[in-house]
Amino acid sequence: MKYSKVHLESMGYELAPIVVTSRELEDRLAAVYERLRISEGQLEAWTGIYERRWWEPGYPLSKGAIAAAKKAIAASNVRPKDIDILVYGSVCREYFEPATACSVAASLGISPDANIHDISNACLGAVNGMIEIANSIELGQSRAGLVVSCESAREINESTIKYILENPNMEKLIGSLTTFTGGSGASAILLTDGSFSKPARRRLLGGVTCAAPEFHEACRWGMEPKGDGTYVERARTDSLSILKNGVKLGSRTWEKFLKILEWKSDQIDKLICHQVAAKNREVILETIGMPEEKDFSTYPYLGNIGTVSLPITAAIAEERDFLHAGEKVAFLGIGSGLNCLMLGWDW
């Protein structure tokens, strides 16, 4: 994929208000820790995450997405009526139908002629939304498009804590570690053809995607039947398989990415990666040969916010003056499935 007409106009994000520390989660699992003889502090030691955020109980996902979208729009010269595409790209959605994007569009006052829909692809949904909008802009079908996401980790964490307390064994606990990395938040990225702001910057140069669908069972999150006519929300992850095979897929995608963009690793100034945990970051950076100082991370204090992680990290990185005009910036995304997508920017 190569692009010449696509620009990142602005970004917005909304932080969930309730800070939940790793120690607080461990306190709720104290009986299990005692039974399995696990010392306190292991969750942070295993993941590198000392806190994450949750929404208030019952918080509407569209509300977070709307808040982030309003910030992105306010930071631009684009008005809601100018937006030709609105994509909601989260794992978490308010209903099976209608698309959560419709609620967001109605609140923002998006044009009735706009293309409005949801995209689902594990933690890559927001990046996939960016690609769909970029393709439409490149083809001249659209001038501006907005991709929004809002994730909530409260519900699956509450369900998983209850499940572990009822099934206190090491296998169940290890299979739930990735769940306990989850955080909550919302993000919005506004892409345009560059005609709304002069001089236009943050130009999308290209991207690549690779897949390893044979590992689609390594991470699952959904509603499971209990056998009595009711369902329960459950998440299970084979963390070792995700790490091992995700890194292999990331390495293959990185090689293809450098070839398509005609870049060398040492020419890349900054990285914005999907946020998982400390070990995942360490191994992928070592594998692709990139130094830690070129990477900006938010997972220690925000956790893994699914589709929101990469956009919110990019927004915070720019806010904190980590990203500068003229730099070569790479977005590295990966999601369960396994799928990997990388984008290259002239920032």
> In this structure, how is the largest beta sheet organized?
5 strands, mixed
Termini separation comes to 18 Å
> What is the gyration radius calculated from CA atoms?
20 Å
What is the number of helical segments per DSSP (H or I, 4+ residues)? Answer: 12
Order of helices and strands: EEHHHEHEHEHEHHEEEEHEHEHHEE
| Coarse structural class | alpha/beta
Strand order of the largest sheet: 1-7-6-4-5
Mean pLDDT: 95
Unreliable spans are none
Proportion of beta-strand residues: 15-25%
Helix percentage range: 25-40%
The general outline is globular
- Number of β-strand runs: 14
Plain-language structure description:
The chain contains 12 helices and 14 strands. 36% of the residues lie in helices and 25% in strands. The strands form 4 sheets. Strands 1-7-6-4-5 form a 5-stranded mixed sheet, sandwiched between helices. Strand 9 (219-225) and strand 10 form a beta hairpin. It has 347 residues and is an alpha/beta fold. Helix 4 crosses helix 5 and helix 9 runs parallel beside helix 10.
Keyword list:
347 residues, 5-stranded mixed β-sheet, 14 strands
In short:
With 347 residues, this protein is of the alpha/beta class.
Helices and strands, with pairings:
Layout lengths: L6 E9 L2 E4 H7 L1 H7 L5 H6 L3 E4 L6 H14 L10 E4 L11 H9 L6 E4 L6 H14 L5 E8 L2 H13 L3 H7 L8 E8 L10 E9 L7 E7 L5 E7 L1 H23 L8 E4 L4 H11 L6 E2 L2 H4 L6 H11 L8 E8 L3 E8 L1
Parallel strand pairs: 4-5, 4-6, 11-12, 11-13
Antiparallel strand pairs: 1-7, 2-3, 6-7, 8-14, 9-10, 13-14
Helix pairs in contact: 4-5, 9-10
